[in-house]
């Protein structure tokens, strides 16, 4: 996975700074709808907030604590990458 750019900084208190990243999580080919739901639940359980869900592909965007990104990457059914703008010609 390429290096992540920190895209959001959130103050959770006057003394604590929490860095979060916006990630695109896409399920690999052949993944079941149950695996999609499990991936979303796992992201939420680990402190993430789903900001967008896609219907044409099995994918979602999540705002996630920067220090826990490695936990998402351990799921064999998903690809995790920084969220970015996609354009067509």
From TrEMBL:
It comes from the Eukaryota. One of its GO terms (molecular function) is endopeptidase inhibitor activity. One of its GO terms (biological process) is vacuole fusion, non-autophagic. Belongs to the protease inhibitor I9 family. This is Inhibitor I9 domain-containing protein. It comes from Zopfia rhizophila CBS 207.26.
